[in-house]
Amino acid sequence: MKSNQAKPSLVRQLPPNVAPSPVFTLCSRSPALAVYVNQLISWDTTVCIHINRYSTNYAVAIVFKSISRLGDGWFWYAMMLAALVVYGQQAFLPIITTLLISLIGLAIYKVLKIKTVRPRPYQVHQVIVLGERPLDVFSFPSGHTLQAVLFSATLGSYFPQLLPIMMLFALLVALSRMVLGLHYPTDVLIGGAIGYSLSLWAPDMQKMVEHSLLLL
Questions:
Q1: Distance between CA 13 and CA 41 in Å, rounded?
Q2: Structural domain of residue 83, as residue ranges?
Q3: What's the number of domains the chain is made of?
Q4: What are the tens digits of pLDDT across the range 157-208?
Q5: Do residues 97 and 211 touch, judged by C-beta distance below 8 A?
Q6: Contact 90, 155 (CB under 8 A)
């Protein structure tokens, strides 16, 4: 016997006083697309709620809160300092290259946040526990994950010795954002994909930096 319970509506994913994103507008014009988007939202929400349940454990919450705060930038500053200590002047160019690509990532992140206006999980679902203060209002994409993957892939390509610890930390940062109720899985996955894609520009960016330094 079929249930009469209504399926979740896309509109219900938006909290009060938040304007619909282009995705919601497009789905309102295409019922077929809306079905697939609703299925994705359902999966996204289910996984997010499941992972966030671990935040009810005090020790787990403290660990991931610390990881998230280190992911604000402190861990990556430490990795760049470690590269300078170990490799000396040879680390200057890779670090400059990484920082410039990171700025591009930051710009892309800010544009996507404004354009998609996706609310954070805890704003939409009362069952989700907020474990850390967010740096801004919107959820998509995960800037912490974007930068974590970007730094790991870019610096790791120059300093393979540092890659294992950076990749492990990047994975923990991505997980922390969901455990703390700040991001959906898709926020994290897309953020990581953007970060890795930007890291592929490292050789070209390094050539630009080298050329610029020669002109000085």
A1: 9
A2: 15-215
A3: 1
A4: 999 999 999 999 999 999 999 999 999 999 999 999 999 999 999 999 999 9
A5: no
A6: no
